[in-house]
Amino acid sequence: MATIKITQRAKVLANGEYPIFLRITKDRKTKFISLKLSCDLSQWNETKSEFRKNHTNYKQMNSALTDIRNRAEKIITDYLAKGEDLALDEFEGLFLNFKGAKKVSVKEFWDEHIGDLNKSGRTGNAKFYKFSKNSFFKFLKDKNVYFKDITPTLLSKYEVYLRANNNIDSGVSAKMRAIRALYNDAINKGCASKEHYPFTEYKISKLKESSNKRALSIEDVYKVINLNTTEHPELIDSRNYFVFSYYARGMNFNDMMRLRWENIVDDKIIYVRSKTKARFIIKTLEPVQQILDYYKNQKRATKYVFPIILKEDSTPMELEYRKERTIKKYNKDLKAIATICKIDGKITSYVARHSFATNLKQSGVSTDIISEAMGHQNLTITQVYLKELENDVIDSAMETLLQKVTK
Fold first, then answer.
1. pLDDT of amino acid 27
2. Which residues contact 21 (CB under 8 A, 6 or more apart)?
3. pLDDT computed for residue 393 by the predictor
4. Could you tell me which of 68, 63, 66 has the C-alpha nearest to residue 36?
5. Is the CB of residue 155 less than 8 Å from the CB of residue 183?
């Protein structure tokens, strides 16, 4: 059972006084919670845990201590009455955010998190968290749970459930990372305990997260560049998006759609990547300049380079809708382009970025430079992009070696 005591600690403050803390002890573990109070050593009665009469306003101060003690005891007794375990971190969160010791369920916290993302305009993230929440509670059959109920065993069972429903490693990993991020946020807000943290035992890193990223060879990229748009005018925009992304250091679609004419300065593209907030200054190569000229001549009402965002005052939800709708058409068009150009395999909106990285690598450019060019926060991310390429190169080399041996 947890016990509490209000105590004065022996560490002197800058004002020469000594701080007053609430101490909670459980299972021989102790946590001190600052009460933002202090006094001289002579003004504190440690035995009675109260201020002495020589302290100014000692009656009011001791009355406040009684309220604090009652608050702490109520949290403990509420848990005892329910037969539930109370961790020290959980107590601290409830004590500092005291509302009758009401617990927040995972679903309540998750919904609030989604609402905050929508309010801040991060609608894409909000949609992902909603999708992850629906998956998790479908597994739980809508059972109401609290964060301490999310155990390593529960996560392992959820993983089995996901795999039984055709989720691969990357899909399982994404959903687990959503739960982990939510759990960390709950700990920071005092709604969950570090002592119950399940991800110390359940390792997301065990999931291989094979990216299966598709990259086009330089030869196939040239096929896309040289697509006869006179014969296929309906594919002009999608062809341009692909070529622009490729020659603009693999600029992703989210940044492309938000690119404004003010970002084009002389022969440079200057913009801040939305994902990492890194600032890019990219030289405008000839294929890119041709695309810019093409859209400049359209003289549209908006100040956006590409005809994706159709009005200046679009809401975050409208932007997300336009993004999804355009990417859907873009991917459909890329499939048609691959067929016309006789390119094997599936091409999606990510392929231009992957192709930029892998073709630089094949050209002998170091991973460090590729990482900087793509704006990756560390080399590990770049290495993930390039890993499958290296496997392909090794396989090709082995085939060549085999041919030499068998001749």
1. 87
2. 6, 7, 8, 9, 32, 33, 34, 35
3. 47
4. 68
5. no
State pLDDT tens for residues 84-137. Answer: 778 887 788 778 765 444 568 899 999 999 998 888 778 878 888 999 999 999
Asked if 71 and 48 count as a contact pair (C-beta separation under 8 A), the reply is no
In degrees, rounded to 5, the angle at the alpha carbon of residue 21 between the alpha carbons of residues 15 and 27 is 150
Report in angstroms the alpha-carbon separations of 26 from 48, 371, 388. Answer: 21, 49, 51
Q: How far apart are the first and last CA of the chain?
A: 79
87: left (phi over 0), alpha (psi -120 to 50) or beta: beta
CB-CB contact of 19 with 11 (8 Å) = yes
Contacts of 291 (CB under 8 A, 6+ apart): 240, 243, 244
pLDDT at 387: 55
Superfamily classification of domain 218-401: Intergrase catalytic core (1.10.443.10)
Contact yes or no for 201/194 (Cβ under 8 A): no
In angstroms, the Cα distances linking 225 to 47, 115, 237, 245 are 83, 42, 12, 12
Q: If you average pLDDT over every residue of the chain, what do you get? A: 85
Residue 5 half-sphere exposure toward CB, CA atoms < 13 A: 12
Which residues, listed in sequence order, are joined to residue 30 by a DSSP beta bridge? 25
Residue closest to 273 by CA, chosen among 250, 290, 302, 246: 250
The rounded distance, in Å, linking the Cα atoms of 153 and 173 is 16
**Residue closest to 128 by CA, chosen among 52, 88, 194, 181:** 181
Indicate the pTM of the whole model. Answer: 0.55
Q: Is 83 or 287 the better-scoring residue by pLDDT?
A: 287
Q: How far apart are CA 171 and CA 166, in angstroms?
A: 9
Token pair for 43: 């003004």
Please, are residues 244 and 335 in contact by the beta-carbon 8 Å criterion?
A: no
Query: CATH number of the domain at 106-206, out of 1.10.150, 2.40.320, 1.20.58, 2.60.460?
Result: 1.10.150
SS3 (DSSP) at 32 = strand
Indicate the DSSP class of residue 105: P
Report the phi/psi class of residue 190: left, alpha or beta, with left for phi > 0 and alpha for psi in -120 to 50.
left
Residues in CB range of 299: below 8 A, 6 or more apart = none
Asked whether the CA dihedral 123, 127, 132, 138 is positive or negative, the reply is positive
The residue ranges of DSSP E strands in 207-323, in sequence order, are 264-265, 268-272, 279-283
